[in-house]
Amino acid sequence: MRYRPVGALHELGPKAKLAVPVLSEIVLNTTEPEATRNWAIKTLVVTLPGTQEAVETRVTASAEDVYYGVRQLAREQLRKIDSEAADAAGI
What is the tally of structural domains in the chain? Predict the structure, then answer.
């Protein structure tokens, strides 16, 4: 149900910065479908990629144990935006 709204936020890019807390919540919610969570990770990249909250969300999601795709995408995106945080998280 949240897939399309997350996609709309993705299209807004940096204009969607107020949605970062909601996007983080979606990424970390293991009851959300994998596709929605992946969209939220990608949307964090185009809104405010280097914010502390966005980095922490990716670090937490990189330890995902429900969906392999979420874990891998979070690790990949974290490595791209903050290699020091990725190194500290053991990624």
Answer: 1
Among candidate residues 22, 45, 36, the one with its CA nearest the CA of residue 67:
36
Residues 6+ apart with CB under 8 A from 29: 37
Domain membership of residue 31 as a residue range:
3-88
Tokens representing residue 60 in the block: 């937490």
Residue 44 CB burial class (10 angstroms; 0-12, 13-18, ≥19): buried
Looking at residue 11, its pLDDT comes to 83
Cα distance from N-terminal residue to C-terminal residue, the chain: 31
CA distance 79 to 66: 21
Flag whether the pTM goes above 0.70: yes
If we measure between CA atoms, which residue out of 89, 3, 2, 16 comes closest to residue 49?
16
What radius of gyration, in Å, describes the C-alpha atoms of the chain? 12
